[in-house]
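Field reference: "sequence" (input) and "structure" (output). Example, Peptidase A1 domain-containing protein:
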Amino acid sequence: MFMDNITIGDLRLPVMRFVSIISYPKMPTEFQFTPLEGVFGLAPPLKMIDPCKASPLVSIMSVVDHPIVTITQYSVSVGDSNVGKLTFGAENYDDCVDEYDYVPLAEEGQWTVKILSVKVDDTKLNITLSPMLKIMDQALYMYGPKAQLDELAKMLGAEVPDDVGDFYLLNQTACDNMDEMPKITLRFGEEGKDTSKTVLKPEHYMEVSPIGECRLLFMTNEVMQYDNDYWVMGQQFLVNRCVSVHFRKGRMGFAQGREIDETDSQTENSEDDQDIDLKEIANKFEDVRIKQFIGM
């Protein structure tokens, strides 16, 4: 199971290597008709049962160094061959920088944390926020309650649409001068205890649409019939950002992505080594299958 196709919602990541195993004392060599739990199929089960009879996630967590999974995306394009990366057993420092700031999960079995504040540069959103932020596997954009998004859109200079299904549009000059637009800072956790934050740069929250409109990448919860108790973060939120969940501690951490050109350079330098590693791992897995077949 060192290479496979993986589907997250409507997003298909074709033939990606998402785990390399050095030691596999209890690791099954194949999974068939096994359950997947929660968001991405990567939420911790209620009980860590026998890894040889459990889901792929439980089996992987039983042999990696740390019960951690980290996810990041490079783009939201379905046609790309390298859309994102899952890292099992560690945080991802290839694509993201700085320490991961962890806060308690707000709900069991979900990638959900309490949200404390939303700021546009140094100005806090002056409205009561929904209590939680959830990362959703089938969501494409970023979603929130209409009243809260309307306030955010006004602070960014966007027009509030009459129809809840329409995008928040900006003047074309905003996209022409995207580097001059403000940053959005989201704070999570519990006030007075552990807190974390993540920053949305203009290229993370706005774009020029295929028909040339300058628009925000936020939409109202009503569009997808999401619960207004949440700000729902989809694939767009994960682009150039790492989100990690520590299953044993029940905590979620965030780290900012490296600059795109730096990441691309690192990827090119490691491609040859990866090809060699994949062949070696394939041979190890075949050896395990043979030993299991003959009863060793």
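The longest helix spans residues 260-294.
The two ends are 21 Å apart (CA to CA).
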